[in-house]
């Protein structure tokens, strides 16, 4: 089956092998664990990819709005990334060096520090962790515990920080935390969620109440909260449903933590490297955290995770935090190339402009579909929350989340050649994370396909649209 498309960056047609693709999927279901996630809702067998286009083993082509959960800032197989990898391979440089100094690592840290907020760039330290963001979160928590001598942690409802130990303890998903044995003494605080405000007010008032509660818990000698080692937050909650933290609220969290000697950790694993319209999401509010947790796009599509932090916190002894694969030379080369390309081409500004256009069109779509409860995001980190219009609203007027509808929309989008992810408290938020290199034509194609998928999922007449639609 040969498929073509007029979307820029498309691949040349190939003959698909449906039988082969189905056999691979069957073997995956037989061999891989029940913990697999994306493979369940996205039964695609990618064989080639370039830019925003993914080609399956069956010959179908898709626009990828998942981008490796935000890892692919430049899309699939960007030329500058491939060239950086080839240079390392052709040079004969070692690929596995633990934490030894290399020219490749030196180049990466130089590129990284050129982008950091000035106080961290001038007086910061970097620690290379294991290959995943959760490893960096673990390192950040361990760092602040060592530096402060305290064990507690402040985290927020809706948070997602990884799947291991302390990182899992800071995660808001109670089901995910159920298997954790150790008590890491996490105090959970309400995150400002304008659409479903825990205080029933929303807006600036809800954010202010969240800040006041935080300060009160820390200052009340009978409040039951001991002084923590750190506060850990996401400038924009991703898995929690694409919920941007209000700028003023972030500044209040910085004031509260600084006044009480509590290190502030910003988890920029998904928001970093231009995703939200500024190079780092904290830049929008002017907040400079004590620790920044970085992964995903910082490795240029390859596994890499680091923390950057104030030098005053650098009190741990040699070997206090290690990891066999913290010396990934290919990832460092790809990461440096990605960081410089984003910066030199102002792709963070491009993300802001394209994201604003997409948000505007999605809000226009919401005006004609009551099932769209909220549209929100920053830059090219966008969420569309779907609600059940047949149900009764809660005490604050919000309708229940429509998880089943969101799942149908995801499947209808896939039928139309669009890969999207779900998130939020009840997996009822359609998440869009396109690469920062998305073209205007691709952005329109994404919005058109999503609108068609929403209509089809609601039971309206299905348009005759295939995966090859431009």
Give a brief rundown of this model:
Its cofactor is pyridoxal 5'-phosphate. The chain is 37% helix and 15% strand.
Q: Report the top-level CATH class of the largest domain.
A: Alpha Beta
Mean pLDDT: 90
Largest sheet: 7 strands, mixed
Write out the CATH superfamily name of the largest domain. Answer: Type I PLP-dependent aspartate aminotransferase-like (Major domain)
N-to-C CA distance: 18 Å
Instruction: Indicate the structural class.
Output: alpha/beta
Beta-strand content estimate: 5-15%
Query: Portion of residues in helices?
Result: 25-40%
CATH architecture verdict of the largest domain? 3-Layer(aba) Sandwich
Low-confidence stretches: 1-9, 12-16, 460-470
Total number of beta strands: 17
Number of domains: 2
Q: Largest beta sheet: what is the strand line-up?
A: 4-12-11-10-7-5-6
What descriptive keywords fit this protein?
single chain, 470 residues, alpha/beta, Aspartate Aminotransferase, domain 1, Aspartate Aminotransferase, domain 2, 2 domains, 7-stranded mixed beta sheet, 4-stranded mixed beta sheet, 15 helices, globular, disordered N terminus, disordered C terminus, aminotransferase, Aminotrans_3_PPA_site, Diaminobutyrate--2-oxoglutarate transaminase, pyridoxal phosphate
């Amino acid at each position: 089956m040969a498929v073509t498309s007029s979307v820029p960056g498309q691949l040349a047609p190939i003959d698909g092998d449906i039988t082969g693709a189905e056999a691979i999927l069957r073997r995956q279901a037989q061999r891989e664990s029940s913990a697999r996630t994306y493979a369940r809702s996205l039964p695609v067998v990618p064989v080639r990819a370039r830019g925003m286009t993914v080609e399956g083993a069956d010959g179908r082509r898709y626009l990828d709005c998942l981008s490796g959960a935000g890892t692919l800032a430049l899309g699939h197989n960007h030329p500058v990334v491939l060239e950086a990898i080839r240079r390392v391979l052709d040079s004969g440089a070692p690929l596995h060096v633990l934490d030894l100094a290399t020219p490749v690592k030196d180049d990466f840290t130089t590129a990284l520090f050129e982008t950091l907020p000035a106080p961290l760039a001038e007086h910061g330290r970097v620690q290379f962790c294991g290959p995943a963001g959760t490893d960096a979160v673990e390192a950040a928590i361990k760092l602040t515990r060592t530096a402060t001598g305290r064990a507690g942690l402040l985290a927020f409802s809706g948070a997602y920080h990884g799947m291991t130990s302390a990182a899992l303890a800071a995660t808001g998903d109670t089901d995910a935390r159920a298997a954790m044995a150790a008590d890491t003494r996490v105090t959970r605080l309400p995150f400002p969620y304008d659409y479903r405000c825990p205080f029933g007010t929303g807006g600036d008032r809800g954010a202010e109440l969240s800040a006041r509660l935080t300060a009160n818990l820390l200052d009340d000698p009978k409040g039951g909260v001991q002084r923590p080692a750190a506060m850990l937050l996401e400038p924009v909650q991703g898995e929690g449903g694409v919920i941007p933290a209000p700028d003023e609220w972030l500044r209040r969290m910085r004031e509260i933590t600084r006044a009480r000697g509590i290190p502030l950790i910003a988890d920029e694993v998904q928001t970093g490297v231009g995703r939200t319209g500024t190079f780092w999401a904290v830049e929008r509010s002017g907040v400079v955290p004590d620790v920044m947790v970085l992964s995903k796009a910082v490795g240029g599509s390859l596994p890499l995770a680091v923390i950057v932090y104030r030098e005053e916190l650098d009190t741990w002894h040699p070997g206090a935090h290690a990891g066999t694969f913290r010396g990934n030379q290919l990832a460092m080369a790809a990461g440096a190339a990605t960081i410089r390309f984003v910066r030199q081409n102002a792709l963070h500004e491009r993300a802001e402009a394209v994201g604003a256009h997409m948000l505007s069109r999605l809000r226009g779509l919401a005006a004609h579909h009551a099932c769209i409860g909220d549209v929100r995001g920053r830059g090219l980190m966008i969420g569309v929350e779907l609600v059940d219009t047949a149900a009764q609203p809660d005490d604050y007027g919000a309708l229940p989340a429509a998880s089943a509808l969101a799942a149908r929309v995801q499947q209808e989008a896939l039928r139309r050649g669009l890969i999207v992810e779900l998130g939020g408290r009840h997996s009822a938020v359609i998440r869009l994370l396109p690469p920062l290199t998305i073209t205007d034509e691709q952005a329109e194609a994404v919005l058109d396909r999503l609108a068609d998928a929403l209509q089809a999922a609601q039971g309206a007449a299905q348009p005759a649209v295939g995966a090859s639609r431009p």
